[in-house]
């Protein structure tokens, strides 16, 4: 069968068993929910292995008729189990007796005519628990099997585990009350459970060689389950003894389960200390903990006629899917043998202390009884127990320390090594010293035969050997791993340690072989990445332990901790080297950076000036176009009037009217040219292109000049209210830069008003100089924006409509003039910008901006 057909078969069978388990859950729930309203048998029954019924509790009529707990029910009204079970509810009628045939412990057969008991009406707490636990246990099996299948869908053991979990969940769901559907489903499922158990135990975690060579053998249990299922379903027509058939199903299931576990145990005994041994240990211990209580109860029910509630064993049964699912999903497992040994040691010591303490209590009671101590005996007992507790506390602590030293010796040594390395690496500033210290800790503390540290060469973009300990082949030390190698990609992307086994499931054979070659060439067991943030700095590689033990969870934790510690130390060492190099050229770099910042500042100033100039030119062009267009039209009329005036003179007519019209056209044209002349003069004065020197300026006039150039922005509906102080003193300043500030504030007000509103301008003399106020009745500025409004590049305008430099540069200009700029605004009530300037600023503060302006 080709791989695609195999995957399709697995997917199809997975869907079938999931649907089968879901059907069993629904059938079981329906029975459990409707049972309280149905007539009951005169005794309670326990389902034995899904194929027999054992009396577990007696009603009053049954007890008086000689029925005993432990009897097997075989027939009702002369019908065998496979015939009366489908018709049980129709057979049981309140007040009408039924004839029950039971098989007693001594082999006798008892027949008793007993009436059915009335419905329960309500469920007791114990019965609710008996109904809820099976549903919970079955759901756990179903969910774990489905989850492992989703995570490891490409692996056969995950598929086999899903088949096993779904059939086991169905078996649990179908336990308890029965109807025709669940009874037949129970027989079919018991046979399937044996087949899926054999399938799982023979391929995971150890697959015998004969199974590898003869894969079709795994189909035989399923074929046997199919035959038994067909026999169970057609038994009413075949007429086979139902107890013989149920016995065959039970033997088939138990034989396959036992055979599978036996082959797994035999394979485990041959593994020794290999990696797969831990998986086998987990499966075997999980099976022992889960299935032994079930098997013991089943044997007790069959041979000893013990009527114990079967659902109690389900509390143990849920251990198995969790253990096996963990083994399939996780590549690296915890050391279960060490956990078991330490648990036994702790249990034994606790039991010894408890026994000794119980002996002292008994001794105290014996003394009191022997000597017939009076009423003060209670006080003596309490005092004696108090002294005993104080005496046993040091003993308990000493025993716990002893167990820790025996079973936690390596962990204590690892903690000590990590502490020493952490303290040492704080003062290490040499990469060579750091990696040597790591190797000493790895080889001496963990006891590995070889270790190596590979660091990333940023120039060549590859991992190469930096330091090593142990016996190494020169060719292995010369190995270089480029960052494009699958090993490097796995270490960087997975961000966890890698072993050779991690590539067993790699679908690409070239990638799998390339990664395995690295481990084989270096003869390493584990590679641990040294990561800093998102960067891969290097790798710590370790070989086998000198003791022959595998690298356990504690070893991996130690290596991860060392890798984390070394990553910080390596970065610190690199930073120290860079700082040393930077110090050598610090002055040159500072001067270069200062020059770059000055150039950047000049470019920003120029950029903002060009932006403001662009907005200004648009308005000025409009203002100039109007009078020029008017003059151009007048010139055309003047030409016509002149022609008519000349013809009138030639004919001797009166041309006085034409002369007056020509005079008016010339006067109006002169007004237009005067308007253009004034605009050009204001523009030249505004920009101060002919002067960048400090001079005294009338700020009222400068504001008026700026308003003249901004007039096109006001015509659509913006009113400008002037409240100027006529006696405002002249201020010594760079008038061109002040005009830039005024224009920026006015443009911002126009943008805020969006063509409609009022701008109020106010100037006053104050004690320290002059105060200018620019306010509008726009939407205002939020408080969070006010705190950042003078920051460079901060703007609330859409992209492409604002640079975020206007107010920042304006604020800088005012400060260089020795003044200050403030903002005051309440959202919804407009905004006000306040400028306060001294009359005589310090000249040296204006030298830098003068140069920048030039």
Low-confidence stretches: 848-854
Strand order of the largest sheet: 9-8-7-11-10
Which of globular, elongated, flat, extended, rod-shaped describes the shape?
elongated
The number of helical runs is 29
How would you describe this structure to a colleague?
This protein is an alpha+beta fold. It has six domains: 234 residues, Up-down Bundle (Rhopdopsin 7-helix transmembrane proteins); 79 residues, Pdz3 Domain; 72 residues; 171 residues, Beta-Lactamase (2-Layer Sandwich), CATH 3.30.450.40; 103 residues; 162 residues, Histidine kinase-like ATPase, C-terminal domain (Heat Shock Protein 90). The protein has 29 helices and 18 strands. The strands form five sheets. A five-stranded antiparallel β-sheet has the order 9-8-7-11-10. A five-stranded mixed β-sheet has the order 13-15-16-18-17. A four-stranded antiparallel β-sheet has the order 4-3-5-6. It is elongated and about 160 Å long. The two termini are 86 Å apart.
